[in-house]
């Protein structure tokens, strides 16, 4: 597929058919994804390929606590898991909340689940001394994750980057034998999509891109070309 077509038609896939995802196809996906950039080309990404049903079910169970909180906060008008706005929803309400199946079922139902790990011992986290949540180290893993999803789309498969299980990282690491200093960055179910999406809806460029400053004029190539 042409690269722009792939970029414009790679959705978050959470429902899968019963079709398998063979090892040779998964091998091509990972072989293409490995060319994603990482800080200093240190390549600190490790991937755990999960096919065992019991392991995937246990992982789905570990995603439930974060999914309950997410759903409860959403129901109370909060921005779920927002680091700047702590939740006011009480623990008992969160524990009694039933999250939608799409937040945990893909980990049980997809033919394969990839657990993406990042070696924190090789990242350059240039934002580590700032008084905010760190995000820079993600630059050494999330391009790889996105490459996986793009490659899966090219092969006729799909998936979604999930993070609910990351909230229970110590238990996930115990389940999968992940040592320190690795962090769990994402859990990605992959399979053949039930529904085919050909066009995604996103904000137009002038709504999120500005010239020269954050409060600068919108970047609108079409309008600017006419002036």
Automatic annotation (TrEMBL):
Stretches assigned to the Nitroreductase domain: 12-192
Pfam families to which the protein is assigned, alphabetical: Nitroreductase
Keyword Oxidoreductase: yes
Keywords: Oxidoreductase
Gene Ontology molecular functions: oxidoreductase activity
UniProt cross-references to PANTHER family, sorted A to Z: NAD(P)H NITROREDUCTASE YDGI-RELATED (PTHR43673), NADH DEHYDROGENASE_NAD(P)H NITROREDUCTASE XCC3605-RELATED (PTHR43673:SF10)
UniProt similarity note: Belongs to the nitroreductase family.
Name of this protein: Nitroreductase
